[in-house]
Amino acid sequence: MRSPNRPWRLPALAFWAAALLVLLPPLAVLAYAFSERWDRHLLPEGPTLAWLAGVTGDARVRSAAWNSVWVSGAAAGLAVLLGGAASLAGHLGPRRLQKLLDALALLPYALPPVVVAIGALDVFVGRWGDVLDLPIVYIGLLAALLFPLVHQTLSAALRQLDARPLIDASRTLGAPDSLLLRRVLLPMLLPAFVAAGLLAWTTAAMEFVIANLLLAGSLELLQPFINGLRGANGHLAAALVIVSLVITTGLGLLVHLISTWRIPTR
What we know:
Blueprint: H1 9-33, E1 35-37, E2 45-47, H2 50-56, H3 59-92, H4 95-110, H5 113-127, H6 134-161, H7 163-172, H8 177-205, H9 209-214, H10 222-232, H11 234-259
Antiparallel strand pairs: 1-2
Helix pairs in contact: 1-11, 2-11, 3-4, 3-6, 3-8, 4-6, 6-8, 8-11, 10-11
């Protein structure tokens, strides 16, 4: 008797194949970070925590991590400020402004990071390098690249709240937009603002191409440091990647919890 047709087999196989391709590199890095060596056999040899202890006790690692924290935090804060103002202005203003902001939010995706970095090097270093501070330039450039992430997050939250009828009702009743923002929209959007900020901070901290080309030699950040460490000691670089991955995963879970949080209304 012929077995019945099972159309779910192909999607299931595709899912597990994709999951294997996604999980295999992090698992290999994890094994490399917690092994003494992995160059003589198919499997790693000698489980150890020495590389992880070396990463946490290295002053240069702490300095690069602190630089990444404050630079990415400043860029994320600026992106949330500008992106939040633009998103709210797009919903409070005419509809064509919202369409223009949506179009601008797609622009950074059309530009490869290396193109942005080379253009920034030519303008901000080659021409105006004597009067501009490179970390400040990097923060501003990164905030502009993070704008689509913040704008799309907040726009989705505003659409979920169905903000347009609230705005129309407020204006019909004669309430100013400032009162609507202060008493209604901003409290309701607080979880979305926090989630967008954490998401922008995580994305900024993981930036490599622009940081490596623009800040090389002036300010050491974590991702370029990991890339440079890879050639000197791959085990330490793998341990640092694992620490970064754990922190990033924790922040991702925090973003998910905050995005599902709702402020009780009276």
